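Repro:
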Amino acid sequence: MSGPDVSVVICAYTEDRWEDILAAVSSVRAQSRPAVETLLVVDHNETLRDRLAQEYKETGEVRVLANAGPRGLSAGRNTGIAAARGEIVAFLDDDAVAERDWLRHFAEAYADPRVMAVGGRTVPVWASGRRPHWFPEEFDWVVGCTYRGLPRGRARVRNVLGGNASFRRSAFDAAGGFATGIGRDGDKRPLGCEETELCIRLSRALPDAVLLIDDRAVIHHRVPAVRERFRYFRTRTWAEGLSKALVARSVGADKGLESERRYATRVLPAGVARGLRDALLARPGGAGRAGAIVAGALTAAGGYVVGGFRVRRGGAAFRVPEVPRGVGAPDAAASPAPVPRAVREGAGS
């Protein structure tokens, strides 16, 4: 098949998601445009790694790897990038399944050599069978899904969302890998924003780079019952504020909060208005959605203030590693482009 080879990286950390992991891999193997390989990166769980290795021991296109870095999603992704043979590296969450043409839509976008990253649309699959009445679509990012306010169709964006995304392998040579110390570490902290920080760093390293979202590249992401509750909503929005403070520390508040300003001044007020209108029309959940938007915005803002204070006090640190090319990866003999010293390491000062 013409076009670039695509490696798919799925990071896993717990046997509790065993059936989800198998479904994710099956959805990649069923793609209309096949991946050159699927890399299952297991985050410091030898039992899970051994079990997956046994499951796929006779499947040549699926490789099981141990996270070679510190515990957490960012280091797991970096391990997959280093081992990938494809010119394009795509990422799929371990509790999501991709529609059949997911990789085809990603690959088509890379016909333009300026395109360095392409993201897709992530649809929530609620454990209860339907969206909670109070849960606003503007906050679907809380459960790792595409939210109201993102552009439709194929459009340029500041950053892609990491659970449904792809990058040229050369993007990591230019900008370094995912920063450790920002993103998730199992279920310990519901942090995020590592893909935001990477994308901004990439655009600075390659000013002509084009980053896209194509909402035809669809995955379906499972939302467990615990994440349908307001308690998780509040915890996740607080963690988002903490994460955004780290992003601002790395790339500056101008770029780190550029999209968030539009979201806060346009998307959220419109969502509150819709909720209040629905309440006046006696539609279920209207007042709850309006209230959740206000609560989510205030909680995220509070997290950002506290996170900024911690950064200034030196209580938060992160590192941006170079990602070497593994054996068998394209241009493995070539030396990767150096990552500017200013973005290799970040810490409160």
